[in-house]
Amino acid sequence: MGIAVVSYIAAIACGVAAGYLSDGTANTVVASMMASVVFFAGTGIVLQVISSTSLSKLKVERQKA
Asked: What does the alpha-carbon distance between residue 64 and residue 34 come to, in Å, rounded to a whole number?
């Protein structure tokens, strides 16, 4: 869960940086920052879902002969 939070913080930081660097024109740096926002947000969602999954009875039980 901790790394998911770090990914969310990185997405917010990239979004703020993109907003700060935006000057109203098509800028490749802003486009790459917004792509980073999508990447970090997606990574955070996936890691949060993985960490909240409950895997009960994962151990294989062998029957005694």
From this structure: 58
Instruction: Report d(CA 35, CA 45) in Å as an integer.
Output: 16
Distance CA 37, CA 34 (A): 5
This prediction's pTM: 0.76
Angle of helix 2-21 versus helix 28-51 axis, rounded to 10? 160
pLDDT digits (tens, 9 = 90+) for 18-36: 989 888 767 888 899 999 9
User: Are the C-beta atoms of residues 18 and 33 closer than 8 Å to each other?
Assistant: yes
Select from 28, 29, 31, 34 the least CA-distant residue to 13. 34
Where does residue 40 rank: exposed (0-12), middle (13-18), buried (19+ CB within 10 A)?
buried
